[in-house]
Amino acid sequence: MFIDYAEVELQSGNGGAGAVSFRREKFVPKGGPDGGNGGMGGSIIFCVDHNLHTLQDIKYKRIYKAQNGKQGSSNRKTGKDGEDIFITVPLGTLIKSAKTKDILADLIQNEETYTATEGGKGGKGNVNFKSSTNQTPRYAQPGLPGTKGVFILELKVLADVGLVGLPNAGKSTLLSRISAATPKIAGYPFTTLKPNLGIVKYGEFQSFVMADIPGLIEGASTGKGLGLQFLRHIERTNILLFLIDVMEENPEKVLNTLKNEVYNFNKDLKEKKSIIVRTKTDLIQLSESQNLIWNSFPEHYYDISSVSGSGLKILIKAIVEIIHGT
Ligand SMILES: Nc1nc2c(ncn2[C@@H]2O[C@H](COP(=O)(O)OP(=O)(O)OP(=O)(O)O)[C@@H](O)[C@H]2O)c(=O)[nH]1
Ligand SMILES: [Mg+2]
User: Fold this and answer.
1) Residue 297 near ligand 1, beta carbon < 6 Å
2) Distance between CA atoms of 184 and 49, rounded to whole angstroms?
3) Quick one: DSSP state of residue 3?
4) What pairing do the DSSP bridges indicate for beta strands 5-11 and 63-65?
5) pLDDT tens-place string over residues 130-172
6) Cβ contacts of residue 216 below 8 Å, gap of 6+?
Protein backbone atom coordinates (compact mmCIF):
# COMPACT_ATOMS: atom_id res chain seq x y z
CA MET A 1 0.00 0.00 0.00
CA PHE A 2 1.20 3.48 -0.77
CA ILE A 3 0.54 5.77 2.16
CA ASP A 4 1.46 9.36 1.75
CA TYR A 5 -0.34 11.03 4.63
CA ALA A 6 -0.32 10.56 8.39
CA GLU A 7 -1.28 12.54 11.45
CA VAL A 8 0.48 12.17 14.78
CA GLU A 9 0.07 13.60 18.24
CA LEU A 10 3.31 14.29 20.04
CA GLN A 11 4.02 15.12 23.63
CA SER A 12 7.54 15.80 24.79
CA GLY A 13 8.68 15.05 28.34
CA ASN A 14 8.57 17.52 31.25
CA GLY A 15 11.80 18.70 32.75
CA GLY A 16 12.70 17.21 36.14
CA ALA A 17 12.59 19.45 39.21
CA GLY A 18 15.76 20.80 40.75
CA ALA A 19 16.55 19.43 44.22
CA VAL A 20 16.73 21.23 47.57
CA SER A 21 19.40 19.53 49.61
CA PHE A 22 22.28 20.35 51.98
CA ARG A 23 25.57 18.68 52.47
CA ARG A 24 25.85 16.46 55.51
CA GLU A 25 29.36 15.67 56.52
CA LYS A 26 30.94 14.65 59.77
CA PHE A 27 32.41 17.62 61.61
CA VAL A 28 30.80 20.08 59.20
CA PRO A 29 27.81 21.31 61.15
CA LYS A 30 26.26 23.38 58.41
CA GLY A 31 27.00 22.06 54.94
CA GLY A 32 26.16 24.25 52.00
CA PRO A 33 23.42 23.58 49.46
CA ASP A 34 24.09 20.65 47.11
CA GLY A 35 20.76 20.06 45.33
CA GLY A 36 21.39 19.15 41.69
CA ASN A 37 19.48 20.19 38.59
CA GLY A 38 16.55 18.31 37.13
CA GLY A 39 17.06 16.34 33.90
CA MET A 40 15.72 17.53 30.58
CA GLY A 41 12.49 16.03 29.28
CA GLY A 42 12.73 13.80 26.19
CA SER A 43 12.19 15.46 22.83
CA ILE A 44 10.44 14.00 19.82
CA ILE A 45 12.51 14.17 16.69
CA PHE A 46 11.74 13.20 13.13
CA CYS A 47 14.65 11.61 11.35
CA VAL A 48 14.98 10.62 7.70
CA ASP A 49 15.81 7.03 6.83
CA HIS A 50 16.27 6.65 3.10
CA ASN A 51 15.38 2.96 3.28
CA LEU A 52 11.77 3.83 4.10
CA HIS A 53 9.34 4.55 1.32
CA THR A 54 5.99 5.00 3.02
CA LEU A 55 4.48 6.53 6.14
CA GLN A 56 2.83 3.22 6.89
CA ASP A 57 4.53 2.46 10.22
CA ILE A 58 3.58 5.87 11.52
CA LYS A 59 -0.02 5.49 10.49
CA TYR A 60 -0.43 2.71 13.03
CA LYS A 61 1.04 4.57 15.98
CA ARG A 62 -0.66 7.88 16.29
CA ILE A 63 0.38 9.09 19.73
CA TYR A 64 3.95 9.42 20.90
CA LYS A 65 4.92 10.51 24.41
CA ALA A 66 8.50 11.07 25.49
CA GLN A 67 9.81 10.42 29.01
CA ASN A 68 10.01 13.11 31.67
CA GLY A 69 13.37 14.21 33.07
CA LYS A 70 14.21 12.90 36.54
CA GLN A 71 14.54 15.10 39.62
CA GLY A 72 17.92 16.35 40.67
CA SER A 73 19.33 14.97 43.93
CA SER A 74 21.83 15.66 46.65
CA ASN A 75 25.54 15.80 45.99
CA ARG A 76 24.89 18.11 43.03
CA LYS A 77 23.64 15.18 41.06
CA THR A 78 21.73 16.11 37.92
CA GLY A 79 18.61 14.06 37.26
CA LYS A 80 18.61 11.74 34.27
CA ASP A 81 17.33 13.23 31.01
CA GLY A 82 14.17 11.72 29.56
CA GLU A 83 14.94 9.63 26.49
CA ASP A 84 14.31 11.26 23.13
CA ILE A 85 12.01 9.52 20.69
CA PHE A 86 13.15 9.34 17.09
CA ILE A 87 10.43 8.82 14.52
CA THR A 88 11.91 7.66 11.24
CA VAL A 89 10.31 8.97 8.08
CA PRO A 90 11.05 8.51 4.38
CA LEU A 91 12.95 11.02 2.32
CA GLY A 92 10.65 13.73 1.08
CA THR A 93 8.42 13.97 4.15
CA LEU A 94 6.84 17.34 4.77
CA ILE A 95 5.92 18.15 8.35
CA LYS A 96 3.06 20.55 8.91
CA SER A 97 1.26 21.93 11.90
CA ALA A 98 -2.23 20.43 11.99
CA LYS A 99 -3.54 23.66 13.47
CA THR A 100 -2.11 26.28 11.12
CA LYS A 101 -1.21 24.00 8.20
CA ASP A 102 2.13 25.80 8.07
CA ILE A 103 5.05 23.80 6.71
CA LEU A 104 7.49 23.32 9.55
CA ALA A 105 10.05 21.13 7.83
CA ASP A 106 10.77 19.61 4.48
CA LEU A 107 13.06 16.68 5.03
CA ILE A 108 14.98 15.96 1.87
CA GLN A 109 18.29 14.54 3.03
CA ASN A 110 19.14 11.20 4.53
CA GLU A 111 19.47 11.42 8.32
CA GLU A 112 18.15 14.98 8.34
CA THR A 113 16.27 15.67 11.56
CA TYR A 114 13.56 17.97 12.79
CA THR A 115 12.76 18.38 16.47
CA ALA A 116 9.00 18.72 16.56
CA THR A 117 8.46 18.97 20.31
CA GLU A 118 11.38 19.81 22.53
CA GLY A 119 11.56 18.39 26.03
CA GLY A 120 11.12 20.78 28.95
CA LYS A 121 14.27 22.08 30.60
CA GLY A 122 15.15 20.70 33.99
CA GLY A 123 14.85 23.07 36.96
CA LYS A 124 17.97 24.35 38.71
CA GLY A 125 18.83 22.79 42.05
CA ASN A 126 19.41 24.91 45.14
CA VAL A 127 23.18 24.65 44.69
CA ASN A 128 22.80 27.36 42.05
CA PHE A 129 21.14 29.84 44.37
CA LYS A 130 23.72 30.23 47.04
CA SER A 131 24.86 33.84 47.41
CA SER A 132 26.63 35.99 49.98
CA THR A 133 23.26 37.06 51.36
CA ASN A 134 21.68 33.63 51.17
CA GLN A 135 23.94 30.79 52.26
CA THR A 136 21.11 28.31 52.67
CA PRO A 137 18.67 28.68 49.78
CA ARG A 138 15.69 26.51 50.49
CA TYR A 139 14.24 26.57 47.04
CA ALA A 140 14.90 25.06 43.65
CA GLN A 141 13.25 25.55 40.27
CA PRO A 142 10.55 23.23 39.03
CA GLY A 143 11.16 21.65 35.62
CA LEU A 144 9.53 23.28 32.61
CA PRO A 145 6.65 21.41 31.04
CA GLY A 146 7.12 19.64 27.71
CA THR A 147 5.12 20.67 24.68
CA LYS A 148 2.30 19.04 22.85
CA GLY A 149 1.20 19.25 19.27
CA VAL A 150 -0.55 17.56 16.41
CA PHE A 151 1.46 17.24 13.22
CA ILE A 152 0.60 16.27 9.69
CA LEU A 153 3.13 14.26 7.72
CA GLU A 154 2.93 14.32 3.98
CA LEU A 155 5.15 12.30 1.74
CA LYS A 156 6.04 13.77 -1.59
CA VAL A 157 7.65 10.86 -3.29
CA LEU A 158 11.29 11.56 -3.81
CA ALA A 159 11.82 9.45 -6.84
CA ASP A 160 14.74 10.05 -9.14
CA VAL A 161 12.70 9.34 -12.21
CA GLY A 162 9.03 10.05 -12.91
CA LEU A 163 7.07 8.28 -15.63
CA VAL A 164 4.73 10.47 -17.63
CA GLY A 165 2.47 9.20 -20.36
CA LEU A 166 -1.06 8.91 -21.65
CA PRO A 167 -3.12 6.10 -20.12
CA ASN A 168 -2.00 2.75 -21.56
CA ALA A 169 1.40 4.04 -22.67
CA GLY A 170 3.11 1.18 -20.84
CA LYS A 171 4.36 3.02 -17.74
CA SER A 172 3.47 0.35 -15.19
CA THR A 173 4.74 -2.40 -17.46
CA LEU A 174 8.12 -0.68 -17.70
CA LEU A 175 8.32 -0.27 -13.92
CA SER A 176 7.41 -3.92 -13.34
CA ARG A 177 10.01 -5.03 -15.84
CA ILE A 178 12.99 -3.15 -14.44
CA SER A 179 12.17 -3.15 -10.71
CA ALA A 180 10.66 -5.54 -8.20
CA ALA A 181 7.45 -3.47 -8.06
CA THR A 182 4.26 -5.27 -9.06
CA PRO A 183 1.86 -2.59 -10.28
CA LYS A 184 -1.42 -3.55 -11.86
CA ILE A 185 -1.17 -3.72 -15.63
CA ALA A 186 -4.05 -3.93 -18.08
CA GLY A 187 -5.02 -2.96 -21.60
CA TYR A 188 -7.46 -0.27 -20.56
CA PRO A 189 -6.88 3.37 -19.57
CA PHE A 190 -6.48 4.42 -15.93
CA THR A 191 -5.34 1.06 -14.69
CA THR A 192 -3.01 2.82 -12.30
CA LEU A 193 -4.95 4.72 -9.66
CA LYS A 194 -2.17 5.53 -7.23
CA PRO A 195 1.52 6.13 -7.68
CA ASN A 196 3.78 3.09 -7.58
CA LEU A 197 7.40 3.23 -6.63
CA GLY A 198 10.07 0.84 -7.70
CA ILE A 199 13.75 0.59 -7.02
CA VAL A 200 15.75 0.01 -10.17
CA LYS A 201 19.04 -1.70 -9.42
CA TYR A 202 22.05 -1.31 -11.63
CA GLY A 203 25.74 -2.00 -11.39
CA GLU A 204 26.57 -4.00 -8.31
CA PHE A 205 25.07 -2.02 -5.47
CA GLN A 206 23.53 1.06 -6.96
CA SER A 207 19.92 1.94 -7.52
CA PHE A 208 17.50 4.69 -8.31
CA VAL A 209 13.82 5.12 -7.53
CA MET A 210 11.24 5.29 -10.29
CA ALA A 211 7.70 6.60 -9.79
CA ASP A 212 4.84 5.41 -11.96
CA ILE A 213 1.88 7.76 -11.76
CA PRO A 214 -1.60 7.47 -13.26
CA GLY A 215 -1.88 8.36 -16.92
CA LEU A 216 -2.31 11.98 -17.93
CA ILE A 217 -4.86 13.22 -20.44
CA GLU A 218 -5.35 16.61 -21.99
CA GLY A 219 -6.66 18.89 -19.25
CA ALA A 220 -5.04 16.87 -16.45
CA SER A 221 -3.34 19.96 -15.05
CA THR A 222 -6.75 21.56 -14.58
CA GLY A 223 -8.23 18.49 -12.98
CA LYS A 224 -9.33 16.14 -15.78
CA GLY A 225 -8.81 12.43 -15.38
CA LEU A 226 -6.70 11.29 -12.45
CA GLY A 227 -3.44 12.96 -13.23
CA LEU A 228 -3.50 16.24 -11.36
CA GLN A 229 -3.51 15.09 -7.79
CA PHE A 230 -0.54 12.88 -8.55
CA LEU A 231 1.52 15.33 -10.52
CA ARG A 232 2.97 16.58 -7.29
CA HIS A 233 4.68 13.23 -6.93
CA ILE A 234 6.87 13.98 -9.90
CA GLU A 235 7.55 17.55 -8.90
CA ARG A 236 10.75 16.61 -7.21
CA THR A 237 12.12 13.91 -9.43
CA ASN A 238 15.40 14.58 -11.20
CA ILE A 239 14.31 13.23 -14.53
CA LEU A 240 11.02 12.94 -16.33
CA LEU A 241 10.45 10.11 -18.78
CA PHE A 242 7.84 10.89 -21.40
CA LEU A 243 6.49 7.57 -22.64
CA ILE A 244 4.78 7.41 -26.01
CA ASP A 245 3.17 4.30 -27.46
CA VAL A 246 4.79 3.39 -30.78
CA MET A 247 1.32 2.92 -32.25
CA GLU A 248 0.22 6.51 -31.59
CA GLU A 249 -1.03 8.13 -34.76
CA ASN A 250 0.32 11.53 -33.86
CA PRO A 251 3.19 11.09 -31.44
CA GLU A 252 4.32 14.70 -31.72
CA LYS A 253 0.91 15.87 -30.58
CA VAL A 254 1.00 13.37 -27.71
CA LEU A 255 4.37 14.72 -26.57
CA ASN A 256 3.04 18.27 -26.69
CA THR A 257 -0.02 17.29 -24.67
CA LEU A 258 2.13 15.63 -22.00
CA LYS A 259 4.53 18.55 -21.80
CA ASN A 260 1.70 21.07 -21.67
CA GLU A 261 -0.01 19.29 -18.81
CA VAL A 262 3.15 18.85 -16.79
CA TYR A 263 4.41 22.38 -17.36
CA ASN A 264 0.98 23.94 -16.79
CA PHE A 265 0.92 22.20 -13.46
CA ASN A 266 4.29 23.65 -12.51
CA LYS A 267 6.37 25.67 -14.92
CA ASP A 268 9.54 24.93 -12.96
CA LEU A 269 9.33 21.37 -14.23
CA LYS A 270 10.56 22.71 -17.56
CA GLU A 271 14.00 22.95 -16.02
CA LYS A 272 14.12 19.23 -15.39
CA LYS A 273 15.97 16.85 -17.61
CA SER A 274 13.70 14.67 -19.66
CA ILE A 275 13.99 11.61 -21.84
CA ILE A 276 11.52 10.63 -24.51
CA VAL A 277 10.78 6.92 -24.74
CA ARG A 278 8.97 5.14 -27.53
CA THR A 279 7.28 2.10 -25.96
CA LYS A 280 6.06 -1.29 -27.21
CA THR A 281 8.52 -1.42 -30.10
CA ASP A 282 7.94 -5.17 -30.40
CA LEU A 283 4.75 -4.14 -32.22
CA ILE A 284 6.61 -2.08 -34.78
CA GLN A 285 6.74 -4.77 -37.47
CA LEU A 286 2.99 -4.68 -37.51
CA SER A 287 2.91 -1.34 -39.21
CA GLU A 288 5.34 0.19 -41.65
CA SER A 289 3.25 3.35 -41.95
CA GLN A 290 3.98 3.91 -38.30
CA ASN A 291 7.65 4.24 -39.17
CA LEU A 292 6.90 7.07 -41.55
CA ILE A 293 5.10 9.00 -38.84
CA TRP A 294 8.01 8.58 -36.46
CA ASN A 295 10.53 9.65 -39.09
CA SER A 296 9.32 13.21 -38.75
CA PHE A 297 9.30 13.17 -34.95
CA PRO A 298 11.23 16.29 -33.90
CA GLU A 299 13.15 15.03 -30.88
CA HIS A 300 15.54 12.26 -29.98
CA TYR A 301 13.94 9.24 -28.34
CA TYR A 302 14.86 5.86 -26.92
CA ASP A 303 13.16 2.69 -28.11
CA ILE A 304 12.04 0.09 -25.62
CA SER A 305 9.91 -2.99 -25.44
CA SER A 306 8.98 -4.09 -21.96
CA VAL A 307 7.74 -7.32 -23.48
CA SER A 308 10.89 -8.39 -25.33
CA GLY A 309 13.22 -6.43 -23.05
CA SER A 310 14.94 -4.68 -25.91
CA GLY A 311 16.30 -1.20 -25.23
CA LEU A 312 15.84 -1.42 -21.46
CA LYS A 313 19.54 -1.59 -20.61
CA ILE A 314 20.34 1.35 -22.85
CA LEU A 315 17.53 3.38 -21.31
CA ILE A 316 18.72 2.61 -17.78
CA LYS A 317 22.24 3.63 -18.77
CA ALA A 318 20.96 6.95 -20.13
CA ILE A 319 19.05 7.59 -16.89
CA VAL A 320 22.06 6.75 -14.74
CA GLU A 321 24.25 9.08 -16.77
CA ILE A 322 21.89 11.96 -16.11
CA ILE A 323 21.63 11.10 -12.41
CA HIS A 324 25.41 11.13 -12.09
CA GLY A 325 25.75 14.13 -14.35
CA THR A 326 28.07 12.35 -16.77
N1 LIG B 1 3.26 -5.47 -26.94
C2 LIG B 1 3.54 -4.75 -25.87
N3 LIG B 1 2.56 -4.41 -25.03
C4 LIG B 1 2.87 -3.66 -23.94
C5 LIG B 1 4.20 -3.24 -23.69
N6 LIG B 1 4.19 -2.49 -22.56
C7 LIG B 1 2.91 -2.47 -22.13
N8 LIG B 1 2.11 -3.17 -22.95
C9 LIG B 1 0.66 -3.35 -22.80
O10 LIG B 1 0.01 -2.11 -22.84
C11 LIG B 1 -1.12 -2.09 -21.97
C12 LIG B 1 -1.03 -0.94 -21.00
O13 LIG B 1 0.09 -1.15 -20.14
P14 LIG B 1 0.23 -0.44 -18.72
O15 LIG B 1 1.64 -0.67 -18.29
O16 LIG B 1 -0.86 -0.85 -17.80
O17 LIG B 1 0.04 1.07 -19.14
P18 LIG B 1 0.05 2.37 -18.22
O19 LIG B 1 0.76 3.43 -18.96
O20 LIG B 1 0.57 2.03 -16.88
O21 LIG B 1 -1.49 2.72 -18.17
P22 LIG B 1 -2.33 3.55 -17.04
O23 LIG B 1 -1.99 2.98 -15.73
O24 LIG B 1 -3.74 3.30 -17.43
O25 LIG B 1 -1.94 4.96 -17.21
C26 LIG B 1 -1.13 -3.46 -21.31
O27 LIG B 1 -2.03 -4.27 -21.97
C28 LIG B 1 0.29 -3.95 -21.48
O29 LIG B 1 0.37 -5.36 -21.51
C30 LIG B 1 5.22 -3.64 -24.62
O31 LIG B 1 6.42 -3.34 -24.49
N32 LIG B 1 4.83 -4.39 -25.68
MG1 LIG C 1 -0.31 2.11 -15.11
Assistant:
1) no
2) 28
3) -
4) parallel
5) 998 998 899 999 999 999 999 999 887 678 899 999 999 999 9
6) 164, 165, 166, 167, 225, 227, 231, 257, 258, 261, 262
Contact call for residues 214 and 190 (beta carbons, < 8 A): yes
- Measured at the CA of 152, the angle between CA 148 and CA 155, to 5 degrees, comes to 145
244 Cα–ligand 2 center, Å: 13
- Asked if residue 190 has its Cβ within 6 Å of ligand 1, the reply is yes
Distance in angstroms (rounded) separating the CA atoms of residues 177 and 200: 10
Does residue 273 contact residue 240 with C-beta atoms inside 8 Å?
A: yes
Q: Give tens-digit pLDDT for 79-94.
A: 999 999 999 998 889 9
Amino acid of residue 101: K
Nearest ligand 1 atom to the CA of 184 is 16
CB of 117 closer than 6 angstroms to any ligand 1 atom: no
Which helix (H) or strand (E) segment is 59 a member of? helix 56-59
Residue 36, SS3?
Answer: coil
In which region does residue 24 sit, left (phi positive, over 0), alpha (psi from -120 to 50) or beta (all else)?
beta
